[in-house]
Every structure is written in C-alpha cells, then in structure tokens.
Amino acid sequence: MDSVIKFEDFVKSYDVRGLVGSQLTPEVIRAFGAAFCDVLELEGKEFVIGHDMRESSESFAEAFAEGAGLRGANALMMGLCSTDMTYFASGKLDVASVMFTASHNPASYNGMKFSRAGAKGIGLDSGLAQIRDAAKEYFADGIQAVENRGFSKALNLTVEYVSYLRSLVDLSQTRRLKIVVDAANGMGGFTVPLVLQDAAGLEALNLAIVPLYFELDGSFPNHEANPLQVENLRDLQQAVVQHGADLGLAFDGDADRCFAVDEKGGLVSPSALSAIVSVREIDRVRALGETDITVLHNLLTSRVVEERIAAAGAKPVRTKVGHSLIKEQMAATGAVFGGEHSAHYYFRDFWGADNGMLAALHLISELGAFDGAMSELSAAFTPYFSSGEINSTVSDVPAALERLRRAFPECSIEEYDGLTFSSTTEDSWFWFNVRSSNTEPLLRLNAESNHEALMVEIRDKAIQIIRN
C-alpha cells in the first residue's frame, strides 16, 4: 500500500486533508513531522502540536512529534484543542504550529493545518509544497536522526487563551441571553464551556448555554460538523425555538468557523455577521486612538459589508476568496478585521488568524446591548437578497463562461477571482460572480440584488445558461 500513496492527492492549497489508513498513516505523518522541522529550520527549537477529537488525531500528533524529534525539534503538546487555540499558542509564544484536524470533513478523514511562528499561514506557495516534497523523500528513504534529538512536553495555555479572547470583547454590559450551541460533537463542545462558561476556572459570563452534541466524538453520530450545509443546522433551528432562546450558534469540527441563527430559527448570514463585527472592530480601535483603519471582505460578501465599513469611517478593501490570501492581505494592509462569506473571520489582534469563537463573542456582545431580538438585528444588516453559493458540474468551463458573456450583454464584467457580472439602473442593481473550483469540475455561482425578484431572475437565468 505504501508505494502507491500519492502525496499530491491529499496536500491541498492551504492544508493537508486525506483518508485515514489509505493516505494518512503514522509513517506518513512521521515523515511530515521530520519535513516540517527541516523546512522551517526548527532543529533545537520548540513548536506547538494540537489535535481535535477524531479517532486518529492523538496518535497522529504523537507520530508527528516523533518525526520532528528525530530531526531535533521540541514539541509542545497541547492535546485536545480547537484550531484557533493553536493559532493563539503560535502567536503568543512566537513558534510554529501544526493542528491535526480535517475540519468539517467526514469521519474517515484527517489532516494538518500548519503555521509559521506568529500564526502565519503556510500554503502551497509559502512552504507547504517544500514540506510535501521533503516528507515524500523521508517516507521513501527513512528519517535520519540528528545527534541531539528533540523532546516532547505538555503545554496548557487554556486560561491565557480564554482571558485573551475576553479581553478583546467587552461583555460586562450584556443582558442575560439564552443561547443554544450546536457543537456537532466537534471541538466546540470543548471550547464553549471554557470561553462562554466557567470550565477554565474563570467567571462564567451572563449567559444560559443550552448544549447540543457537546460530547466529543469524531464519528459525528448526530450530523456532519459542517454548518455551511443547511441540513446540518436543522437541529439547532428547532432547539432555539423549542427553548425560547435568544440566539443559536453552530461550530464546525475544529471550531474555527461560527454560524448563527436568530430566535425564530432563521439563518443569520455570514455577511451580516461580518458587517456587525466590522463595525465593532472599527469602533474598538478608534476608541484606542486609531484613525487610518482598514477592513477586508472577500468579493462574495454582501454589498452591505462594504457599505457598513465605509459608513463607519474605515477603508473597505475587497479580496479574493481563500484562507492564505486573506491572511497575506491582513498582514500587507494592517487591516483590523477580515470577513469571508464562508464564515471565516480574521482578526488583526489575533495575529491575523481566523477565530470563530471571537466572532461569536462579538455577536453575543452586540445582541446583549441591543434593544430587540436577533432577527431584528440581523435584518438591519441584511437589506439585500442573496442566492448563497450554488455549485454546478461543468465539463467545459470556458464555454460556459462564454455563454454567460453573450447572455448578459448589459453587464460590466470584472475578471477578478472568476468573473463578476454587474448592472445598475435607476432603482435596481445586481451582481453575480462565477468562479471555478480549484479541485473539482465545478462552477460556483453567487448572486445578489436589492430586489428579491430580480435576484431570483438573474440566479435562475445564470444557472440555466451554466448547465445548458
């Protein structure tokens, strides 16, 4: 089996995701540990390892530490944690890190997310390709140990992590809220009691938490840990209404993405949450004396995000879609915050990394100070009508794009992360973006308008043309 393992199949653009047993084995992981040490020049230095609740994660973390140790690196073992907890350790200690998780992928998968010191992301063009190639050599030829092998020791930064998040969001004036949280048997079941309750030994917040699927179980017995799929939010929506809760929150498997539903069970769009957090972060740093403030949003977020950033007196900067791209832009622009349509939220004061729990704290604080229900707050940040992302299997992508160009002659077309078609008349506007998937024969469509009927018309017309 070993001879047919193809590393290129499971080393993705921003991380590693593969099938346990057939692609990811302890031997493969050990080779990655050695390669990680070599490429990042960690001999004699410390780095952080964290892992989620998947069945293979703990043994993989140990195998990685062994491989790195053979090449002289010292592993600080965090044990069970969310991905953003490894970012915190990487940022606070200024050391490299690796997190074992496959995020929202099914139980048969596992993977690795890598960071350089300071929680700086590693993608294919910033070191991951070199790690992959070196790991492939170590896997084939074996790992030659250095004279001074590295060691492993436990690391616990739980209290520091919780204290730091709470220091970034003022929850002192929050009215008591009842919140249902669906952890989907993922790491949210570990971090929510720490941050929102008193499991870290710190004072509990003024919240009544109703837990859904907090038991850590990498087989995901209740539903997939992927809140981007609406069917995985149904239990949360029902529970919010059943318990008369003010808010519902859902986290993905490694708890780095956060989704919300209102008191009626209605979805709060990631764009609305991005707009809310944008304004709050602008206000927070302005109160500290900053005047030249930048906020990022990717090109698929609602137009309201850009409008709210500008209205708050900051500079909105549009980016392409993608984890490492936004992290790079965060660093290049000094942006205080960055929001994606996929519910990744990036914070300058969290080393430019994404943190779903921090976004959740902002939403809780905003709702707790708001004189009204979550549905009203959400509506104020959702004035337009969006299609959400719609995928179509397409055998000839260039031909489909050419059909769209001919079908929408009235549109201006921007070639930036796919094609964005836009049109504005006296009282109406619409835009839609079509992007190719990097890994599958798919076209992804997102559309928005200030009139629902127009959005539906444009959405349906575009789908019909794409699938023709």
What is the gist of this entry?
Keywords: Isomerase, Magnesium, Metal-binding, Phosphoprotein. 35% of the residues lie in helices and 23% in strands.
Which helices and strands, and how do they pair?
Blueprint: E1 16-19, H1 26-39, E2 46-51, H2 57-70, E3 74-80, H3 83-93, E4 96-100, E5 109-116, E6 120-121, H4 128-141, E7 152-154, H5 158-168, E8 177-182, H6 188-195, E9 207-212, H7 234-243, E10 247-251, E11 258-261, E12 267-268, H8 270-287, E13 294-298, H9 303-311, E14 315-319, H10 323-333, E15 337-339, E16 345-347, H11 356-368, H12 374-380, E17 385-386, E18 390-393, H13 397-407, E19 412-415, E20 419-424, E21 429-436, E22 442-449, H14 452-466
Parallel strand pairs: 2-3, 2-4, 3-7, 8-9, 8-10, 13-14, 13-15
Antiparallel strand pairs: 1-5, 4-5, 5-6, 10-11, 11-12, 15-16, 17-22, 18-22, 19-20, 20-21, 21-22
Helix pairs in contact: 1-2, 1-4, 8-9, 8-11
InterPro entries: A-D-PHexomutase_a/b/a-I, A-D-PHexomutase_a/b/a-I/II/III, A-D-PHexomutase_a/b/a-II, A-D-PHexomutase_a/b/a-III, A-D-PHexomutase_C, A-D-PHexomutase_C_sf, Alpha-D-phosphohexomutase_SF
Cofactor: Mg(2+)
GO biological process, one term: carbohydrate metabolic process
